[in-house]
């Protein structure tokens, strides 16, 4: 299947889930494509002989955030609904507008689902249900809502909306009330009904997460039953879109998945249980929408994908390469040749037009009345913490080719290697003065690069701002600056629960502060905390340190805050930062703490395996050059001990791993040093003079000696 690209029409920049295939009508078996873009244009077209044939196109306006199909239940879903700001508009399949519904939402619509006369809308935190455009139900979520769907009412017999929320939870509603929550392994970004209809029961939902996991859960009337879950072993991008379609023609619908790194995946159900990845296909941009259907040629199914910058790409089951020298092959070849020829002519005309417009701009810019306009361009960015390697991934995607990206940081950061990154990086020296730059790096991109992925690792306790200056290949030269906060506890990630049996240190705060004030301090300190102050009087969040595996429990209300962690350095950072934030607002804090001596030994035991592995890796890497020299001089390595021979055999992998994790050992040394200083800081003792001796013990790789040093100091 998916033997070749079918067509490549382009619209404006598209958001997630804004392209659908209309049902085939009458005798025509091929389907029309409808897509909404961020120029506010709804475009509907069909494909004839590989060329796009327009059906209708609306006038530009505000950007379209979602596009769904609707209609009466159990009839073809061929009415087109688009979300624009806080408004929902409806169009017929011919392009006639029949609905303009201005909702009572104060924010723009982020997610939409339609079932018969029922309309389900979500802004950032707010869910609204309308029936025949009349307000029915309302719900305020504790974290951002990324997607919504409703179980099919013809099967489930009641309206059951499901919200995909950023805090790794599905929230199942009944009316305006929360029925129950479903904990997921990652933040869900997209929901779809299993098999397109919720399965036999109508209760099965497929979800995709921002960290690339895929799963199916059954939403019953009282609880969720997890069916299967697929991890992201290949370290691919986050999932943006899902569809079900029988592309393999075996009578069972496959799962079509589109990711933000441009991967299209086809999963099929060989057994009745877990899906198996059968095919994948890589595009150079994130896949905003994916659909299976018959678009280009009757009898041949396709997978249609809409990418971020507005390219629509079709993958067809029609054989492209024919065996033998038949007349049919010759005919196909002539068709392809004429198509290539017409595309070349079109390209030449466009190049001439571009040159003419550039000349015109140059002449007008040199006149005395010249007004230079800055060209607007769209940047799709994503800055997320990866649990696998405790690093931040920064993805920058531009609607046109990127010329260069300058990365600047006022806090120490390690830039890590990214395999997919073909850009040439150069570093600039930074001043050693306080409040100056710690990182200045420029990525120069190859021609036609529209997506750049960087990886950085931060140091907990050191916080500030990372800035990316994005310059695309457009004239006149223009640049956009994007800022990302590096938080004091930047390597912590939200989790559903923690191990309460670990030895814990406790920090207690009391003072004349409001619930909103202490919440704003926690937002400043920790990632993945919703900016909006939670409803109620008290809230508890759980976190895990992605680098070490230590934990943090944070519970606070008006006038009180309680923080528990098995890592004393986490408590120390919180104490320092929260004190500083309270002082800025002239609020007096009463701070008390309870230090558990056993927690230090526990944290050292968590660090030790990583430390031992990195020390061994560093030793092996330092031996490689000497061993290779021996190999050249001696001509054979048979006389070497097996452990040295294995170093030579694995040299490339060892060097690659060492290169991918620069300063890893240094960071572990830093964490142990901070742990040592923090342990005694809570006792009121300054032990900085003993740090050189600590580093000597660390170099000797003696765990017992290290624990003894901590106990005796």
Mean pLDDT: 88
Distance between the termini: 67 Å
Strand order of the largest sheet: 38-40-41-42-39-43
Helical stretch tally: 10
Low-confidence stretches: 322-331
- The percent of residues in helical segments reads 10-25%
CATH architectural category of the largest domain: 7 Propeller
Q: What is the CATH topology classification name of the largest domain?
A: Methylamine Dehydrogenase, Chain H
- Tell me the total number of β-strands: 43
Number of self-contained structural domains: 4
Class per helix and strand makeup: alpha+beta
The main β sheet shows up as: 6 strands, antiparallel
* CATH homologous superfamily title of the largest domain: YVTN repeat-like/Quinoprotein amine dehydrogenase
CATH class of the largest domain: Mainly Beta
Radius of gyration equals 29 Å
Shape: globular
Pfam family, one: BBS7_pf
Coiled coil: 333-367
Keywords: Coiled coil
InterPro entries: Bardet-Biedl_syndrome_7_prot, BBS7_GAE_dom, BBS7_hairpin, BBS7_pf_dom, Beta-prop_BBS7, WD40_repeat_dom_sf
Structure characterization notes:
- The protein is of the alpha+beta class and 713 residues long.
- Helix content is 23%, strand content 38%.
- It has 4 domains: 3-317, Methylamine Dehydrogenase, Chain H; 391-484; 492-595, TATA-Binding Protein; 601-712, no CATH class.
- The protein has a 6-stranded antiparallel β-sheet, with helices on one face. The chain has a 5-stranded antiparallel β-sheet with strand order 33-34-31-36-37, with no helix packed on it.
- Helix 5 runs antiparallel to helix 8.
């Amino acid at each position: 299947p998916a033997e070749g690209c079918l067509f490549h029409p382009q619209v404006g920049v598209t958001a997630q889930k804004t392209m659908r295939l209309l049902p085939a009508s009458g005798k025509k078996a091929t389907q029309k494509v409808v897509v909404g873009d961020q120029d506010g244009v709804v475009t509907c077209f069909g494909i004839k002989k590989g060329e796009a044939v327009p059906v209708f196109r609306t006038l530009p306006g505000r950007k379209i955030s979602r596009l769904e199909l609707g209609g009466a239940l159990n009839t073809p879903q061929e009415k087109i609904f688009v979300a624009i700001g806080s408004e929902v508009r409806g169009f017929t399949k011919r392009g006639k507008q029949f609905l303009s519904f201005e909702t009572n939402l104060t924010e723009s619509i982020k997610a939409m689902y339609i079932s018969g006369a029922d309309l389900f809308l979500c802004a950032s935190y707010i869910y609204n249900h309308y029936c025949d455009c009349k307000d029915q139900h309302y719900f305020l979520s504790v974290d951002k809502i990324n997607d919504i769907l409703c179980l099919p009412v013809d099967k489930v017999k009641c309206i059951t909306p499901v919200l995909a929320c950023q805090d790794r939870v599905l929230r199942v509603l009944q009316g305006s009330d929360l029925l129950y929550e479903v904990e997921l392994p990652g933040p869900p970004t997209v929901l779809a009904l299993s098999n397109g209809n919720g399965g036999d029961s109508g209760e099965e939902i497929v979800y995709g997460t921002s960290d690339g996991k895929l799963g199916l859960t059954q939403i019953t009337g009282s609880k969720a039953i997890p069916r299967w879950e697929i991890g992201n072993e290949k370290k691919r991008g986050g999932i943006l879109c899902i569809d079900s379609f029988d592309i393999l023609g075996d009578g069972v619908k496959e799962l079509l998945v589109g990711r933000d790194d441009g991967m299209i995946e086809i999963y099929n159900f060989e057994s009745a249980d877990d899906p198996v990845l059968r095919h994948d296909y890589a595009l150079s941009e994130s896949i905003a929408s994916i659909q299976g259907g018959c678009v280009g040629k009757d009898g041949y199914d396709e997978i249609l994908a809409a990418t971020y910058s507005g390219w629509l790409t079709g993958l067809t089951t029609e054989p492209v390469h024919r065996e033998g020298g038949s007349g049919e092959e010759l005919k196909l070849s002539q068709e392809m040749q004429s198509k290539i020829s017409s595309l070349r002519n079109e390209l030449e005309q466009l190049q001439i037009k571009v040159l003419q417009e550039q000349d015109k701009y140059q002449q007008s810019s040199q006149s005395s009345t010249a007004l230079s306009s800055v060209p607007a361009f769209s940047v799709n960015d994503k800055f997320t913490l990866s649990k696998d390697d405790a690093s931040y991934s920064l993805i920058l995607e531009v609607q046109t080719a990127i010329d260069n990206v300058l990365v600047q940081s006022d806090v120490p950061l390690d830039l890590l290697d990214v395999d997919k990154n073909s850009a040439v990086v150069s570093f600039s020296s930074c001043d050693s003065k306080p409040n100056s730059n710690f990182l200045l790096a420029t990525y120069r991109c190859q021609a036609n690069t529209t997506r750049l992925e960087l990886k950085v690792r931060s140091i907990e306790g050191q916080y500030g701002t990372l800035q990316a200056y994005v310059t695309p290949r457009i004239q006149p030269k223009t640049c956009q600056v994007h800022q990302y906060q590096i938080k004091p506890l930047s390597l912590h990630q939200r989790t559903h629960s923690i191990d309460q049996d670990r030895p814990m240190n406790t920090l207690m705060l009391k003072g004349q502060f409001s619930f909103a004030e202490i919440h704003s301090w926690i937002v400043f300190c920790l990632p993945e905390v919703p900016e909006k102050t939670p409803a109620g009087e008290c809230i508890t969040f759980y976190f895990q340190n992605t680098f070490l595996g230590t934990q943090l429990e944070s519970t606070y209300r008006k006038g009180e805050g309680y923080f528990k962690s098995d890592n004393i350095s986490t408590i120390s950072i919180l104490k320092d930062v929260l004190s500083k934030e309270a002082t800025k607002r002239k609020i007096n804090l009463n701070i008390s703490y309870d230090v558990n001596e056993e927690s230090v030994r526990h944290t050292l035991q968590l660090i030790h395996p990583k430390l031992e592995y990195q020390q061994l890796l560093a030793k092996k890497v330092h031996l490689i050059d000497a061993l290779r020299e021996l190999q050249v001089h001696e001509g054979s390595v048979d006389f070497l001990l097996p452990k040295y021979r294995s170093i030579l055999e694995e040299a490339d992998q060892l060097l690659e791993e060492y290169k991918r994790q620069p300063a890893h050992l240094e960071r572990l040394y830093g964490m142990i040093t901070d742990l040592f200083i923090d342990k005694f800081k809570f006792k009121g003792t300054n032990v900085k003079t003993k740090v050189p001796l600590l580093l000597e013990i660390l170099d000797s790789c003696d765990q017992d000696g290290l624990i003894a040093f901590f106990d005796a100091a």
